[in-house]
Design a protein that fits this description.
The complex is a heterodimer of chains A (173) and B (329).
Chain A (H helix, E strand, L loop, with lengths): L2 H4 L1 H27 L3 E2 L2 E2 L11 E8 L2 H5 L14 E2 L9 H9 L6 H10 L9 E11 L2 E15 L2 E6 L9
Antiparallel strand pairs in A: 1-2, 3-4, 3-5, 5-6, 6-7
Chain B lengths: L2 H10 L14 H9 L7 H29 L25 H17 L4 H19 L10 H16 L3 H31 L6 H19 L6 H8 L1 H16 L7 H22 L4 H11 L2 H11 L1 H8 L1 H4 L6
The chains are: A alpha+beta (173), B mainly alpha (329).
Chain lengths: 173, 329
């Protein structure tokens, strides 16, 4: 006896399953193709695809007034950073979101500055904060890191004020 | 078998057992029926489905509120993603509306547990969670930790709408999730090969990622130091290369999740991959591991074996699964 005549239940289920999976696969491909590879929950899962590509991440330091008032360097080596570290996790500031903001620092507008101020709304209003963009790249001797000051955050009138820094093009050099 | 009888059996979920040796069946349909175990559901399958359903819905509720509380702190949509590229979601960010959305998602999740309402609750849950996701990640960073839970929820919704009978719905939801998870891993490997080719597993790439993740740890905690595994791969290029190559091969073999015969082995390998990613790069895909444990390990066979070994105790404890079934209309 054939599957069609003797077991219509299983046959119907298998055919319907193939049809549904096929339609979802087409929608999957169409949505990620038209939305930059991401249309939750569909994804091209390209998170580790561009291996070896230089990265840029955020780092925040607490400065004293004297350091914040003096001229900051264009770039710092990781072992020569000014101030003391500020841990973001206890303040509920997501490292990923802060890093994404800093990666576009060259084209910041009012929206990005406001986003930065709001992210640091939970930080204690005691001392100036230096927001750095640390870049890493593969070089002959290994991985080289450089930190570039992006903004100084000050607390004025209970609100975080963002003072963007002039970005020197030292990261690519 | 008459049409009436066939419909009665489908609606009750009692689909006749499939015979793989049937020579007249289309090979693909025969394979799908075998992979999805249509008509061969056991008490272990039903228990696994319950756990799977609770896992997905609890994650949906957790993320709905977690993302909702963060969306209130976002001033504007900076980098639109997903549906936010087509529809302006500015009204949602920086407002308590995200918490209203979280409450709606919670109501949908609770409703989806109820047998009668699941069909009407699951599709809106997926859509509302998509909106919550894109609003949460509109500052530019794309997070992938919730993708497989989202795919599982989508499969639950599809099962509720398109599969006849509770047994078929449960088996479809589990099988389709295995299908998309397996495909996702293959897609991840294909993305890597498309971007860098066979040079992708160069050990120096792992060094670069370790540097990045240690910087993240320094930023988040205020201190950082490489662990033993990181020190080991930082000291040996060949070992770092071997680690990356092994990860790539395991991802490429993700499609083995589709087949019952290879599912357990590839599940254990994928869990090992995620544990390796955690210890080498500090990134924990906890929901991926949880979902793999639920859908990839042979729980039905183990439960069946336990029931055979202790028939009275096992049969009594799983009897409740037959009385009320999620998704049953």
């Amino acid at each position: 006896m054939s599957l069609e005549s003797a077991e219509p239940g299983v046959s119907v289920l298998a055919r319907r399953t193939l049809r549904v999976l096929g339609v979802v696969a087409i929608v999957y491909a169409a949505t990620i193709a038209t939305h930059g590879g991401e249309f939750w929950p569909f994804s091209s899962y390209s998170m580790f695809a561009r291996a070896g590509r230089p990265w840029q991440r955020a780092l925040v330091r607490v400065l004293d007034e004297a350091t914040a008032g003096s001229a900051l360097a264009d770039a710092y080596a990781p072992e020569a950073l000014p101030g003391t570290p500020l841990a973001l996790a206890p303040l509920g500031i997501p490292q990923n979101d802060l890093s994404s903001l800093l990666q576009r620092a060259e084209v910041w507008g009012d929206t990005e500055r406001e986003a930065l101020a709001r992210l640091f709304g939970t930080a204690p209003c005691r001392a100036p904060l230096l927001v750095l963009r640390v870049s890493g790249a593969i070089e002959a001797e290994g991985v080289r890191q450089r930190a570039v000051p992006v903004a100084v955050l000050r607390c004025e009138g209970g609100r975080v004020q963002v003072q963007p820094q002039r970005l020197a093009s030292v990261e690519a050099s | 078998m008459g049409e009436l009888e066939s419909r009665r059996r489908e609606s009750s979920g009692a689909v006749p057992e499939y015979t793989a040796s049937d020579p007249a069946a289309h090979p693909l349909r025969r394979a799908v029926a075998r992979w999805f175990r249509f008509g061969r559901e056991t008490a272990g399958d039903r228990l696994r489905f319950r756990v799977f359903e609770l896992f997905l819905l609890s994650h949906a509720v957790y993320w709905a509120w977690d993302w909702g509380s963060f969306i209130r702190r976002i001033p504007a949509v900076v980098v639109p993603q997903g549906i936010a590229r087509d529809i302006d979601l500015s009204f949602l960010v920086g407002s308590p509306l995200a918490l209203v959305n979280a409450a709606c998602i919670t109501a949908c999740a609770v409703g989806a547990l109820s047998a009668q309402r699941s069909r009407w609750c699951l599709p809106p849950l997926v859509v509302l969670l998509h909106v919550q996701y894109v609003a949460r990640h509109c500052l530019g960073k794309v997070a992938h930790g919730s993708q497989y839970v989202g795919l599982g929820l989508l499969c639950l919704a599809l099962a509720a709408w398109y599969m006849p009978g509770p047994s078929a719905r449960r088996q479809f939801a589990l099988g389709a999730t295995q299908f998309f998870m397996g495909g996702g891993y293959v897609l991840a490997a294909a993305s890597k090969l498309a971007a860098r080719g066979l040079a992708w597993p160069d050990g120096r790439h792992l060094w670069l990622w370790i540097g990045e993740k240690n910087l993240d740890q320094l930023s988040e905690l205020g201190h950082a130091a490489p662990n033993a595994l990181q020190r080991l791969v930082l000291g040996h290029w060949w070992l770092a290369t071997a680690v990356l190559a092994a990860g790539l091969v395991i991802e490429l073999c993700g499609f083995l999740l589709w087949f019952p015969a290879t599912r357990t082995a590839i599940t254990l390998a994928l869990i090992g991959l995620h544990v390796g990613v955690f210890y080498s790069m500090g990134i924990l895909f906890g929901s991926y591991i949880g979902q793999l444990v639920i859908i990839g390990l042979p729980w039905p066979a183990l439960i069946e074996r336990a029931q055979r070994a202790w028939p009275r105790r096992g049969g009594a404890s799983l009897g409740w699964l037959d009385r009320r079934v999620p998704g049953e209309r």
